Amino acid sequence: MAAEIVTTAVQEYLERDQGLIFDGTPRTVREAQIVDDFFTERGLGNPLPILLTVDKDEMTRRNAERQFCLTSRGDDFPVVTQEDQERCREMGGTVGRRPDDDPEKLATRWSEFLEQTQPVIEQYREQGILKEVDGIRSVARS
Question: Which residue spans within 81-142 are E strands per DSSP?
């Protein structure tokens, strides 16, 4: 379960006196409960959930446009810059789309998000610990 990976990683970073950020977890109410209990049992307070708000149409558009370096070793990464493309070629990878970014699969992922993850978001919102960030705004690039 993803929550066990999260709690293990948190423990490792705590032991090194470091912080960390997780992306895409917890995704279910059960995972959220495990993570929340872990924080409580160790006197860490609440986790800080951050929600990037993006509507379905924008999410679909962005996923359809994004490119990844796809490698046979499984160490795929986003391709954003020319340097990323060069690094990908050096690794023997190809630049393309991930299978999960197919529009049909995105529709399934969106449904799963509404069914499984939206209740987690509402729970954190009700607790007053959810931080929401407008994910529609453009990213400043240097």
Answer: 94-96, 131-134
- The amino acid sitting at 87 is R
Contact (Cβ atoms closer than 8 angstroms) between residue 31 and residue 38:
no
Beta-carbon contacts of residue 27 (< 8 Å; ≥ 6 apart): 2, 116, 117, 120
Residue 49 CB-density burial (10 A; 0-12 exposed, 13-18 middle, 19+ buried): buried
Q: Please state the φ and ψ torsions of residue 73, each to the nearest 5 degrees.
A: -85, -10
C-alpha distances (whole Å) from 33 to each of 46, 123, 130 are 11, 10, 15
| Structure confidence by residue, pLDDT tens digits, 81-131 | 999 999 999 999 999 998 888 888 888 989 999 999 999 999 999 999 999
CA distance 39 to 138: 33
Q: How far apart are the first and last CA of the chain?
A: 38
Query: What CA–CA distance (Å, rounded) separates 135 from 26?
Result: 19
